[in-house]
Amino acid sequence: MWKVFSKDEKGFTGLEAAIVLVAFVVVAAVFSYVMLGAGFYTTQKSQEVVHTGVQQASSSVELSGDLIATGDLTAGSECLDTVTLCLQPTAGGSSIDLATTLITVSAPTCAPTDLKMPTGNTYSDIPFTGDGTTFGIAAVYNDNGNENLLLEKGEKFEVTVALKSVVSIGANENFQLEIKPPQGATYTIHRTAPASISDIMTLV
């Protein structure tokens, strides 16, 4: 009679083992899901970082055509007076806000000087000129009709720099312009004044 009501230790142990095994499988599945999710998140973040890095490392603006300079022909102090450059966005680049763009002028005889757009100027003020602290915009080509100061795909902005107001660049002297958009790398332009200063010059 005692045999009939005795506990079956083998059967109970098998049930416990099955429960533990199921628990292990569930935990492993949850852990795998969490790890996969973390992996996908890390991959996405890595792609975003790479994309941002490429944007920051490449310039979003470039020069279209040559620099055109005018000369100050005052006897004994001939030098470059103004410089005009045509800017356009790079292929595949984003729009550039010229209202927050800087143009830095430098030369062997001049410390870097930042020029910005005149405060308060809008699209309707074009054309406007610059001075020793600002740059001007002479014209807009292929305007897409938005009437703003964003340099967008297909557009070209003719920018003027009053170079003489910053530094006197005589014959055969070097100078540098750095276009610094709010996003993207700086676009640098190196030029040398010709051996003879004239009214209109092409700087290549």
What does this structure look like?
Helices cover 24% and strands 32% of the residues. It has 1 helix and 12 strands; from the N terminus they run αββββββββββββ. The protein has one helix at 9-57, and strands at residues 61-63, 67-72, 79-89, 96-97, 102-107, 110-115, 136-141, 150-151, 156-161, 174-180, 187-192, 200-203. The strands form 3 sheets. Strands 1, 2, 3, 7, 9 and 12 form a 6-stranded antiparallel beta sheet that branches. Strands 6-5-10-11 form a 4-stranded antiparallel beta sheet, with no helix packed on it. The longest helix is centred in the first third of the chain and has 49 residues, at 9-57.
Topology:
Elements: H1 9-57, E1 61-63, E2 67-72, E3 79-89, E4 96-97, E5 102-107, E6 110-115, E7 136-141, E8 150-151, E9 156-161, E10 174-180, E11 187-192, E12 200-203
Antiparallel strand pairs: 1-3, 2-3, 2-12, 3-9, 4-8, 5-6, 5-10, 7-9, 10-11
By helix and strand content, what is the structural category? alpha+beta
Q: SSE order, as H and E? A: HEEEEEEEEEEEE
How many strands in all? 12
What average pLDDT do the residues reach?
85
Q: Which overall shape is indicated by the principal axes computed on the Cα atoms?
A: elongated
Portion of residues within helices:
10-25%
Query: How does the major sheet shape up?
Result: 6 strands, antiparallel
Distance from N terminus to C terminus (CA atoms, Å) equals 112 Å
The radius of gyration over CA amounts to 33 Å
Report the β-strand fraction as a percent range: 25-35%
